[in-house]
Design a protein that fits this description.
This protein is of the alpha/beta class. It has 7 helices and 7 strands, in the order βαβαββαβαβααβα. It is 45% helix and 18% strand. Strands 4-3-2-1-5-6-7 form a 7-stranded parallel sheet, sandwiched between helices. α1 packs parallel to α2. It is globular, with a radius of gyration of 15 Å.
Length: 179
């Protein structure tokens, strides 16, 4: 399965890097392909290293203004002209989406992917990986949106909240019918 992962390119604390590395190793061992922002920095590097070292493929989608930070040892690298094109390419190349910890860029990617799903532009499974409770506030906000009628799809059809990489990958594989 080709799994798009939205995540930070920042250097982060062990409470985020260790679970990210563990999830990446699960992807690689499972024979999955990582589709990600293509960066050789921060958490993006941690995840790409984990996938690569355990046998998974790497498909990077960078953007022109960040191309100097792109990872060299990938199976495929695409340089998009801007962030909008990058998001579209990431979604197009993926069978499923995982949202890991990140900043405003990750939040932008997450909300766009969910908005597209809400309007029926894709039906790919989306997992929000809530490492160390990072997305507790967002999870509460989504639940409120659902309860108060702001979502045209039930929240459970829109996104799966996972507390760890094992449950995230299990959900994706079950959604895709992988045995």
């Amino acid at each position: 399965m080709d799994i798009c992962v939205f995540l930070s390119a920042a250097d982060l604390d062990e409470r985020y890097t260790r679970p990210a590395r563990e999830f990446a190793e699960l992807l690689g061992k499972g024979g999955h392909t990582l589709v990600w922002g293509g960066s050789e920095t921060g958490l993006m590097k941690v995840v790409a290293d984990g996938v690569r070292e355990t046998g998974g493929r790497l498909v990077g989608i960078s953007v022109e203004f960040l191309h100097t930070l792109a990872r060299a040892d990938v199976d495929e690298m695409v340089i998009a002209k801007d962030l909008a094109e990058r998001k579209a390419l990431l979604l197009a190349k993926a069978d499923a989406v995982v949202i890991m910890v990140g900043g405003t860029g990750t939040l932008d990617e997450a909300t766009e992917i969910l908005e597209l799903k809400k309007h029926g532009h894709h039906t790919k499974p989306v997992v929000l990986l809530n490492t160390a409770g990072f997305y507790d506030g967002l999870k509460a906000q989504f639940r409120r949106m659902d309860a108060e009628g702001f979502l045209t799809l039930p929240l459970t059809d829109l996104v799966f909240f996972a507390e760890d990489g094992v449950s995230a990958l299990a959900y994706l594989e079950e959604s895709a019918g992988v045995q």
